[in-house]
Amino acid sequence: MKQLLFAAKRMMIPMQLLPFLLRTTPARLRRWMIPILPIRDLQVAKKLVDVMDENSRSILEGKQAAIARGDSAILEQIGRGKDIISLLIRAAEKSSAEDRLSEEELRGQMNVMMFAGTDTTSTAMSRILHELAHHMDVQEQLRKEVTQAAAHGDLEYDVLNKLPLLEAICRETLRLYPPAITASRQATRDTVLPLGIPMTGKDGTTITEVVVPKGTIVHVGIKAANTRCSLWGADALQWKPERWLNPLPSAIADADIPGVYPKLLTFIGGARGCIGYKFAEISIKVQLAILVKGFRFEVSDKKVAWKLGQAEAPTFEGKHMLPMVVSMVSHDA
Question: Whole-prediction pTM value?
Fold first, then answer.
């Protein structure tokens, strides 16, 4: 046991040194050091960063080459030149030298979009399909709503955003199952944080605020805020889309929740709130409308476990997957 504890302590020392190394050493030296440090997670993180960077470079070079060849080449690209990366490249070309995004900044933007907008959206979609498979009545109601709205052709953006049950299902899933259950922020100056709910200290005094010194890391409990029984009621931990089809209770409507997504902290809030939350929302709605209109999703006999990683993902027998029974939907009269 003593040997195991000693080994664990030796493993912790490099992790404790990382903040110091980030401030005092160049990036090239840090990359050289990673294979030497006996920290498997750190080495895995390096491999992930390398894969993301390689993909970003490949995509960016392809977009730049298509733009350079002209309009015909752009139209052959996915997105036909209207994707966000093509728009960023064109904006950079039109900007002055001092305002122009560098190659590194463009790749950084791409990495953020791929890292923050892929697993989170797919996880949310998985949760929705999983809940719909357990609530077939809600699934049938949604299918009817989408099918009627698309009776005369494809669903336009404005029509899609006005489907009440689709909206309610998305909001309820993102409330109960936020892809990121916590977030961290660092205080840039000394401040005092008021408490929404006073606490009682060990000495019996009432605590209404907390002093937060500059540099303090504050962890925000996203899921905890989204599922507070004092706001959402005794059924706060139940998936009930219908709660969004009626006016919210006054406890929620009057609550000072600073989220960019109304009354939820799923996408955080303030100046550092999620910049892509509208894109995530419409992406989920488009995928869900297409899938539910054409397919029926039912629970399988496989036991699914939801495990927390970068996002909470469905797993079966240790692998990331969501086994379901999927069948075609007949739209014959």
Answer: 0.77
